[in-house]
Write a structure and sequence with these properties.
The protein contains 14 helices and twelve strands. With 491 residues, it is an alpha+beta fold. It is flat. The termini are far apart.
């Protein structure tokens, strides 16, 4: 039974759930609340600091903007090699331009569908969950976008290469919301909720989907290959021989907890220092009732020496605590790529200096960019290509163009322009292909050049027409300067 295997695999998942609860408490509690929580549970941050939550939101936003930019393209459809392009076009430059235009139109179709299915919103939730929990299961619902399953709703078994071979999803579904393919299930009278178990198991190179409710097999068995499998078990940082990944917050959870403690002490200490308690000498001439009952500017009998205020004299200790707290804040800010945290304490800090420091920090996530680009973005593009019915054969590659280089997308364009300028300086222009330069610049800058850039044939015709116009204009000017000169027709 699927349920029995799900319960058996859940034992390996428990330590990751416990750690995820801890990480959520010092960042964003609603991302992974305690198992006992429900709709009536308040998931407000009951701590005295919000630095962790702001850091997670900031880093997640940077990842979304870098991996799924709102402008430009995060992927390209292109021939797998120059040989593949030549085999299709026969080396004809005009045919190559037509192929590029067709592929570019396909890219636009995929991007439009991604926006229509609102995948960007789900992407932001995926990033925040990966940062805090480290694991999430993404399921593609045909035509409607992505459905996300938290760590408590699925189990996964991996092979020696850490590739999933068995995935089981548990969903609590109301009887009225059962999918159409499960309409044959006989619901019990008076029962509203049921646990639906969906299993994707890899067998002999194929994925087989089976479903079960209350031990009863439901629905139709479905087969998928690796390209069409509608689920993806994602993780932030996998360690050898572990079924689930570690979260990004795990690297800095010590600093977050210490920052929480320091902030708590600082708040309580500040409130204690602000509190004023007056004492009156019981053996003195001043009566306590006169002090407590006196209004502002009142005159009472007594001596000033009989009255004093209790002081903590902890200013030095509080200063040390504040200094340590600031150091933790800067350390945490750097981990979350906060540009304000990388700026050194000086009167003048150049923009280039900040850019270099930020670049240095961002390259620390290069492995994560590559993982997310290949594991998630490439899968999403393949899902959408399948849904919109694009024909992408083996001669066409899907290239993800984001990652570390996406944080500075003009870098390759700048390098290309420097190269072209160098060739021009050396007067080796005959070695350059103008059409290829224009196409590469469009790719690097993420510009859709369909109907924007002319084909080589159109460029040739345009130049020929311009030459004829210039020749005609030159002949007209010569005729105007020598009106009596008889034109000799050409033989």
């Amino acid at each position: 039974m699927i349920k029995q295997d799900y319960d058996k695999f859940s034992d390996k998942r428990t330590p990751y759930e416990d750690r995820a609860e801890t990480y959520a408490k010092v960042t964003l509690p609603f991302i992974f609340p305690e198992e006992s929580s429900n709709g009536s549970t308040d998931l407000e941050d009951n701590l005295v600091q919000s630095l962790g939550g702001m850091g997670v939101n900031s880093l997640a936003s940077k990842l979304v903007l870098s991996l799924l930019p709102p402008q430009g393209r995060f992927f390209r459809l292109q021939p797998s090699s120059a040989e593949a392009m030549n085999s299709v076009t026969g080396g004809d430059e005009n045919a190559k331009a037509e192929v590029v235009a067709i592929l570019s139109e396909g890219e636009e179709q995929v991007l439009s569908e991604i926006e229509r299915q609102d995948i960007r919103t789900a992407f932001y939730t995926i990033m925040r969950t990966l940062i805090i929990v480290g694991n999430i299961l993404v399921e593609k619902k045909e035509g409607t976008g992505l459905k996300l399953h938290t760590l408590r709703n699925y189990v996964v078994e991996r092979d020696s290469r850490q590739k999933p071979v068995d995935i089981i999803i548990k969903e609590s579904i109301h009887k009225d919301n059962l999918p159409e393919e499960l309409a044959d299930f006989n619901a019990e009278e008076g029962r509203e909720e049921y646990d639906l178990y969906t299993r994707f198991k890899r067998t002999e190179g194929k994925w087989i989907r089976t479903q079960e409710i209350e031990g009863e097999e439901v629905g139709q068995e479905a087969n998928y290959d690796d390209e069409t499998l509608p689920v993806k078990a994602l993780g932030w940082n996998f360690l050898p021989d572990e079924e689930y990944a570690r979260a990004y917050v795990e690297d800095i959870v010590g600093d977050l907890i210490q920052y929480q403690k320091c902030t708590n002490l600082f708040v309580e200490g500040s409130m204690g220092s602000a509190k004023q308690i007056w004492t009156v000498n019981p053996m003195g001439q001043t009566r306590k009732s006169d002090v407590t009952g006196a209004s502002n500017l009142d005159v009472i009998d007594g001596r000033a020496d009989d009255v004093s205020v209790i002081r903590s004299d902890k200013n030095y200790d509080m200063a040390l605590l504040a200094q340590y707290r600031d150091e933790l804040r800067r350390s945490i800010g750097k981990a979350f790529l906060d540009t304000g945290s990388v700026q050194r304490d000086a009167e003048r800090v150049t923009a280039q200096e900040i850019q270099l420091m930020v670049r240095e920090l961002e390259t620390g996530l290069a492995g994560t960019f590559s993982l997310l680009a290949n594991e998630l973005l490439l899968t999403i593009v393949k899902w959408i290509i399948e849904e919109v019915g694009l024909e992408v054969d083996n001669a066409t590659d899907i290239k993800i163009t984001v990652g570390v280089d996406a944080l500075s997308r003009n870098k390759q364009a700048d390098i290309l322009m420097q190269y072209v300028q160098t060739i021009h300086t050396l007067r080796y222009n005959d070695y350059l292909s103008e059409a290829e330069i224009v196409q590469r610049l469009a790719n690097y800058m993420g510009i859709n050049n369909v109907n924007l850039v002319l084909t080589p044939k159109q460029v040739q015709e345009k130049r020929a027409a311009a030459a004829q116009a210039a020749q005609a204009q030159s002949a007209g000017m010569a005729q105007a300067q020598n009106p009596n000169e008889q034109q000799v027709p050409m033989q």
